[in-house]
Amino acid sequence: MSEHDSPTIATTVQTSETESTDRPTVTTGHPVIESRDLSVYYGDEQALQSVSLGIPNQQVTAIIGPSGCGKSTFLRSINRMNDLVDTATIDGELSLEGTNVYGDDVDPVALRRKIGMVFQHPNPFPKSIYDNVAYGLRIQDETENLDEKVETALKRAALFEEVEDQLDESALDLSGGQQQRLCIARAIAVDPEVLLMDEPASALDPIATSKIEDLIEELAEEYTVVIVTHNMQQAARISDTTAVFLTGGELVEYDDTEKIFENPEHQRVEDYITGKFG
Fold first, then answer.
1. Sign of CA dihedral 122, 78, 32, 1
2. Mind listing the pLDDT tens digit for each residue in 191-221?
3. What CA–CA distance (Å, rounded) separates 239 from 244?
4. How many CA atoms lie within 13 A of 78 on its CB side?
5. Among the CATH numbers 3.30.420.10, 1.10.287.70, 3.90.180.10, 3.40.50.300, which is that of 31-121+194-274?
6. pLDDT value of position 278
7. Which residue from 33, 64, 34 is spatially nearest to 239, judged by alpha carbons?
């Protein structure tokens, strides 16, 4: 985990038919991202059920759970990527530093400049390494000291030393792990506040995965990082807090990562972590 001070986290979560049916309310001491009764529907199908949680600043928050439990849906709600799905509808509230990101006065494009995203499969543009990193800066007309900004982003992504002599070459010629670190450099070049990662290492070999994990821990010194992962060992290694989603888009438990993995409050979470289901 990172060396940041862990927030105080209070959880009130109902998980069985014998318990109250009130929805979860989960808070942290100083959340930078906060959802309140957030529900997402794709047509008639409910993908998230009244999720309420707060994500702390400059830490790594992992979101884990079985396939189809709403992990990626929640992640994509943060930067309004679900807006791109015609059948998606949103209920509830999700805020970034106290501002409702679904407010009528919020520009989704401007929002995504504050909230960078890295996807499961590396998706570099068919451009040079340099132009990939510079792309967002040029769109925002931030071209002053462009060389320095590109170099800084590549260094933060732990890639510069490997590519400094081939910046004019195609990004598509890089290895899979290098391409993913390039995508991270592209995301952080515009200096976002939050970095979302959707299974960023699932398509990589163990060595490349280890580099990405080390990089994530370093990035949390400057950014709020939220990572979706199927790899529970990965979540245990690199995250400060962990949210467990289970079938039907239900947030079952959210707490310090150590507590989630060593002493979860709910039997369903323990069963999932120990491999009894999921």
1. negative
2. 999 999 999 999 899 999 999 999 999 999 9
3. 13
4. 30
5. 3.40.50.300
6. 56
7. 64
